[in-house]
What does this fold into?
Amino acid sequence: MLSQTLFVHHVYFWLATPGSKEDHAKLLEGIKTLIEVPSIKSCHIGVPAGTNRDVIETSYAFSWLALFDTREQQDAYQVDPIHLKFVENYAHLWSKVVVYDSVGAY
Amino acid sequence: MLSQTLFVHHVYFWLATPGSKEDHAKLLEGIKTLIEVPSIKSCHIGVPAGTNRDVIETSYAFSWLALFDTREQQDAYQVDPIHLKFVENYAHLWSKVVVYDSVGAY
It folds into this structure.
């Protein structure tokens, strides 16, 4: 089991132009730059898995999961120059972003 | 970085009775039973972290993050008796469930 003390930051991106393979590739390129943010403990860049039940959200383009050892590390990530540059350079590619920030339930 | 080959299964639960501390505790008890499903590689049970920006979804009660080595392990989890029993015994406690299944983007 992952440590319950982890801060789990999960972001889902929807493309402004869903059909554009070029924008899809560009946004992936952008999300990859985030891997270098030093305060991240671990991360995963995902796309929908192809599962399909009523409760499953399948319409997003990318999942960006970042795990942090502490809340402070996540705060540092938010203002890290790499993160700020990512938003500046790639925000025009997405129409919607949904973020779920979770900390251990017990 | 987490392995890009991981299958990331992230479930968010909303309580049918959001104000009920008893139901909150019961659902946590239920989600904890899922930890024992043998096909899970790693997992995390979360609650909203208290962050608050426009893009952040804060209204859910629990986040259940389960990581699997393969798609087949996730398939096995879906039909594992522990998982089926969880749904049978605890589904009355939630009003909404949203699932995001993601696999490595590259």
Q: What stands out?
A: The CA atoms of residues 8 and 102 of chain B lie 5 Å apart. Residues 21-34 of chain B form the longest helix (14 residues).
